[in-house]
Input
Amino acid sequence: MDVVITQEHQHLISGDMANHYKILPKTVFDDQIILYVAIENSNDDFKDELELLLGQHVVFEPLPLEKIDKALSIYYRTERSLPVGKALNFEHNDFLENLLQEAKSLKSSDIHCEVYEKNARIRFRIDGQLIERYKIEKDNYAELVNKIKIRSKLNITEKRLPQDGRITSDTFDIRVSILPTLFGEKIVMRLLGQDASNIDLSVLGFQDEELYSYLEAVKKPNGILLISGPTGSGKTTTLYATLRLLNDSKRNIVTVEDPIEYTLKGINQVQLKEDIGLTFSSALKSFLRQDPDIIMLGEIRDSETALMAIRASLTGHLVLSTIHTNSALGTISRLIDMGVPSYLIAETLNLSVAQRLVRKLCNDCKKKEPCSPQDFPVGYTMPYAIDAIYKATGCNSCYHTGYKSRRAIYEVLTVDHTIALAIKNNTLHKLSGSEKHKSLADKAFDMLASGETSLEEIYAILINI
Output
């Protein structure tokens, strides 16, 4: 059984003390505190020192060191990954700020606050996965909801309808979404970085030949560049790195986004407001009267926006945008489904890019095992044979997730004369799997073969591509 520490007891000792002495609080009475302790540290001298520090009588409950380390990695992470040490304390007004700073230090993209029949929990999305951080009492949860609503300038009395707001801090912005559920309101807070000045295309994960093709496409004075992938695959980061590269005093760059996730000095950024009629298509109409050189649309969602983007590129503008498809070739099919004539796509599309973020295995604990074709999705054929693969296990170094950080993989399709002809003649399917075109599934398999990731992590990519 894993050690479980309640939020109420977690604040009894600091993170520094917990990690230094290898101790965890189990419970507390009027004059004594019961601590889980590593078996090798359960001696009287050790107890005397802790009693002096805590000012209470200490009772030890010895546990194996591996159990202590695992619990410490969950509840009291070290400065290397989480400079927290303090749990949320609902008796003070700064617990929400502590929560936000903790999420930022963990490089979390989202905070999920959820309520159920008897209690509530808070989870962070880290490297694309949700990890539970706190269990809290239902009464405390109601207070948390109100504080978030006040910071977001939302109506604290409205509990029946969804609400959307924003929290602005010195170093980052938070987009807030509140949704009524069976037992109360669920809150998701998306952490948005404010400054994109340090985002560089060269470090995002492009291979050398892919980066060369990408840079050649963005150097063109007009045309369309589309990046596809699901939510959370890094599309926006790639777009901002591109804008940073293109941003100079000779160009007029305008963007319309939902939301504005980063700010870039020298670029005119517009926040989408559909409730008052400011949509992607209406903003694009206005942009064309603003003498732009480069236009960035946060997303092409419908045929009207797609056709307007095509027209903008035909009239001498470079248009950058994202679209939700599974592959670079799928982007072209999606545009055709939206009603864009294939000959216009062939004339205007410079580059189609698909991307995914793949978690990398922790090198300290990944485990080698034999590779069997039966482990792969039905119908999937390995591009080449491999004898072994690695799987995630989990250790203190990776906080028992089995993974450390993520890497982007890209599928880059340059629309040259051959591909343009295939678009016009509706023969794109013949390009799939050719030497000229390497799919996301191929890139994911390369990571698996090199031991960088696990089959479990890329399984969905192998199915969808």
Notes: The first strand starts at residue 23 and ends at 28.
